[in-house]
Amino acid sequence: MKRILNLRSFSCLTLIIISLIFQGCSPYFNQPTRPREARIGEETSVTPGLRTLPPPSDKLAVAVYKFRDQTGQYKPSENGINYSTAVTQGGTNILLKALEESGWFMTIERENVSNLLNERKIIRSSIAQYKPENENLPPLLFAGIILEGGIISYDANIITGGAGLKYFGTGGSTQYRQDRVTVYLRAVATKTGKILKTIYTSKTILSQSVQAGVFRFVKFKRLLEAETGFTVNEPSQMAVTEAIEKSVQSLVIEGIRDGLWTAEENSKTRVATLLEEYKKEETESRETDIYGARDNTERLRFSLMPNASVLRYTGDFGPSTSKAGLGVAVNFGLSPHWNVQASGTFGNFAAQEYFKRKVKIGELNVQYRMLPYQKISPFVQLGAGFVSASEKSFFDSQSKTDKMANAGFGLEYMVSKTIGVNLSGQYNYFFEDSFDLASRGNHNDAFWKASVGLSIYLGGHYTKK
Question: How much is the pLDDT for 195?
């Protein structure tokens, strides 16, 4: 039997390790074992959308003088000072490439315009020396729009975490860290100096590590030791590129929407579809917080909650056993965060010997929802109630009634607008040590209650501020 249990535990841990590795199977199965040749730069997830924008009626002449890192931040380091910058200093080059990819802009060199002017002086000097007649160079193009802005923020370690498990020298672990880069881009009219449009985009940067290993004696004097793992760091340059490309794409779309520039006449259908998709994206962005959670769920004021429970009595008789129960609760929302809940449960309390009761439980609780506008919302609750117990039936007129207080916590997941699934755990403590007609020890009788059920929202909207 012991050998079977060890084999089962070893198999479970092996499956856990394999699942951890397969979370990042692409880098794990494409590990660099030899030098690789130079290649064309990788695309981001925004690049295809940037290239498929509807063509403009007329290309816009734009100049970019400087689009660089404005954070002045160095890479975070655990071992002393690191003088490498956190983000790339070549933001201007990335922006010029994104403008070219969009097909909407005619870019004009301005970052190193002094070099351009010097070269034109050399050309004029050569012309004057070798050609007696006057031959003028064509004039430089001027830009109708100047693009300004930069990389204004790099936030390191906005979320960190991980998990691990080991059993008899076998196990695995995973860790992650998330950083965030923020970009601002604005378009300025050169004739008037008016700021036509300002765009704000951001991109998270994910770093992950997965490790797994085995260290155990399989036989006498036979030691098995094995380990594997990998670490994946999303390149910050790719994150900056994606954020800049997204800002250029948004600049084009919002300019079309606001009438600053127009697309070709024969692309009206594509423009309408593009504007509708962008409107949905804006709505989703407003509902999403900095950690990626969406506040797009509205819970109604009144709800009915049928549930099934597991009740475990802890008192003066033992050992305790777990018994099933059924119940229903009614919720009334005072606000999106605060609820008042009345509930009733029918079930059984029992110990393995000498104690068994049929019980009716009534409770009045105050509940606090931590994330009322998200699909998954944890909650905590406090309350008081009574337990009516009888050895004969639930509706025995001579049943004994005791008062108790309770505290609990749980989670609710919204499946649809009106249906949710909730899971909760609760500890209930009697005011007196007389529920089981015995008084031993320093603590009163108590019981645990674990419930799973549905939340059926019936109606009632909160007043929107």
Answer: 94
Local confidence band at 354 (pLDDT 50, 70, 90 cut-offs): confident
Of 288, 347, 355, 372, which Cα lies nearest the Cα of 316? 355
Q: Which amino acid is at 396?
A: D
Give residue-wise pLDDT tens across range 76-123: 666 666 677 778 888 999 999 999 999 999 999 998 888 998 988 888
CB 64 within 8 A of CB 111: yes
Give the separation between CA 11 and CA 14, rounded to whole angstroms. 5
| Angle between helix 236-257 and 268-287 (nearest 10) | 120
CATH fold for the domain made of 302-459 = Porin (2.40.160)
- Smallest CA-to-CA distance from 228 within 204, 211, 207 is with 211
Helix segments in 91-205, DSSP class H: 91-102, 113-130
Residue 228: name the closest of 175, 172, 177, 176 by CA.
Answer: 172
Instruction: Tell me the domain boundaries of the chain.
Output: 2-24+45-76+83-278, 302-459
> Which CATH code of 3.40.50.10610, 3.40.50.1820, 1.20.1250.20, 3.30.930.10 fits the domain covering 2-24+45-76+83-278?
3.40.50.10610
CA triplet 257, 259, 262: central angle to 5 degrees?
A: 90
Backbone phi, then psi, for 281, in 5-degree steps?
-65, -40
Structure tokens belonging to residue 7: 């084999």
What's the Cα-to-Cα distance from 62 to each of 105, 109, 142, rounded to whole Å?
7, 9, 8
Task: Round to whole Å and give the CA distance between 101 and 96.
Answer: 9
The C-alpha atoms of residue 402 and residue 313 are separated, in whole angstroms, by 14
First-residue to last-residue Cα distance in the chain: 64
Q: Name 381's Cβ contacts closer than 8 Å, sequence gap at least 6.
A: 341, 365, 366, 367, 368, 406, 407, 408, 409, 410, 424, 426
- The token duo for 46 is 């925004």
Residue 339 near residue 462 (C-beta atoms within 8 A) = no
Same CATH topology for 2-24+45-76+83-278 and 302-459: the answer is no
d(CA 426, CA 386) in angstroms, rounded, equals: 14
- CA-wise closest residue to 297 among 437, 428, 413, 177: 413
**C-alpha span between 24 and 357 (Å, rounded):** 53
Sign of CA dihedral 390, 394, 398, 402: positive
Residue 52 CA to residue 42 CA, distance in Å, equals 17
